[in-house]
Amino acid sequence: MNSRLLKALKAHQTIGVFSHARPDGDALGSQVALSIWLKNMGKNIFAFNPDPFPDNLKWMEPFFPVQQPDANVVNQCEAYVFLDGNKLDRFGEVAAQLGSSGRPCYMIDHHPDPEMEFDDGISRPDIGSTAELVYDLICEHDSSAVTAEMAKALYAGIITDTGSLRFDSVRPQTHRIVADLLESGGFSPPEIHEAIYDNNEIRHLKLLGAALKKIELFNSNQLATMSVTQATLDEAGCTYADLEGFVAYPLSLKQTKAAFLLCEKDGRIKLSLRSKSSLDVNKLARNFEGGGHQKAAGGWHDGPIEQAVKDVVDQASKQLN
Ligand SMILES: [Mn+2]
Questions:
Q1: Cα-to-centroid distance, 17 and ligand 1 (Å)
Q2: Tens digits of per-residue pLDDT, 198-240?
Q3: According to the model, what pLDDT value does residue 1 have?
Q4: Residues 98-136 pLDDT 10s
Q5: DSSP characters for 241-283?
Q6: Residue 26 Cα to ligand 1 middle (Å)
Q7: CATH assignment of 202-320, given 3.40.50.10330, 3.10.310.30, 3.40.50.11540, 3.50.50.60?
Q8: Which CATH number fits domain 2-196: 3.30.420.10, 2.40.50.100, 3.40.50.620, 3.90.1640.10?
């Protein structure tokens, strides 16, 4: 699989590399590392994302320029690689049109149920991060090709998608990859962890305080919800993006099998669903216009928020019974 994709990539001179909209550490880390690698092989590389780097990943921005997908620039590319998503429309409006461009579209991803609109690629839902897949692809070509910046970017991708190496998707091989990255990158774990996780403003902690008060428990504490209204965000001077990571708090409760963060956003309710049991939140999210992984998924509800809590808990209870 890897060698076929490698061969295909080597055959193109100008390649567009996309990461999914509203990018996270895995999307950007994979994109930055793959883009540097291809460029170092003498390719012309354009990296695209419709949205900006989140604040806690801005340290990665100087490693490789990522631009908004302007159709004129996108159309200069002979082929495209799509990272950390398995449906073209997850990469924004310009990307959504590329399936009919006649130019090859390759995917490297770890989400379940990929769309068949790609020409080739790597799809491994059993692997914890796209960054691990990118690392394997690069190493199949030449393991000495990993520069310090690529190592930091891939490390960020792995730790953000594996809960800092604690999810059940983490393999012994994940730790071996991380060991390699620490060696080739010449950095220490706190350097990246602090940049990603220890950059709160006081407003974030005020929002957390308000959100913790909104935790509710259901089904003998097996299900926990955290509801955040627009008014709560406004009072704390925060936006939806500031809720990143909050769902870990209800999920940390002793008896909780799954936790759901519900937040008012764009006139609807955005759902972040997490499990630490056999409860499959990917399946749950399919009832709410969403999807993701078995242990982490997202979706939408029309609201109001109280009704969303009720409907999500009802559907989750069915899985528990
Ligand atoms: Mn990912």
A1: 15
A2: 988 999 999 999 999 999 999 999 999 999 999 999 999 999 9
A3: 56
A4: 999 999 999 999 998 898 889 999 999 999 999 999 999
A5: GGGTTTTHHHHTSTT-SEEEEEEEETTEEEEEEEESSS--HHH
A6: 5
A7: 3.10.310.30
A8: 3.90.1640.10
Give 231 Cα–ligand 1 centroid separation in angstroms: 31
Mean pLDDT of the region 153-178: 96
Question: How many angstroms does the Cα of residue 155 sit away from the middle of ligand 1?
Answer: 12
Instruction: Give the whole-angstrom CA distance, residue 264 versus residue 232.
Output: 10
Look at residues 87, 124, 104, 127 and name the one whose alpha carbon lies nearest to residue 291.
87
List b or e across 244-258, with b for residues whose CB sees 16 or more CB atoms inside 10 angstroms: ebbbebbbeeeebbb
Closest CA to 226 of 207, 201, 202: 207
Its pTM stands at 0.89
Residues of the chain with CATH 3.90.1640.10: 2-196
Q: How far is the CA of 298 from the centre of ligand 1 (A)?
A: 13
Cα 154 from Cα 181, distance rounded (Å): 8
* For residue 190, pLDDT beyond 80: yes
Q: Are 274 and 248 in contact (CB under 8 A)?
A: yes
The whole-angstrom separation of Cα 194 and Cα 102 is: 43
Q: What does the CA dihedral 257, 261, 303, 19 come to, rounded to 10 degrees?
A: -110
Instruction: Tell me the torsion sign for CA atoms 134, 49, 91, 23.
Output: positive
Q: What spacing in Å lies between the alpha carbon of 72 and ligand 1's midpoint?
A: 28
Dist CA 98 CA 199 (whole Å): 37
As a whole number of Å, the end-to-end CA separation of the chain is 40
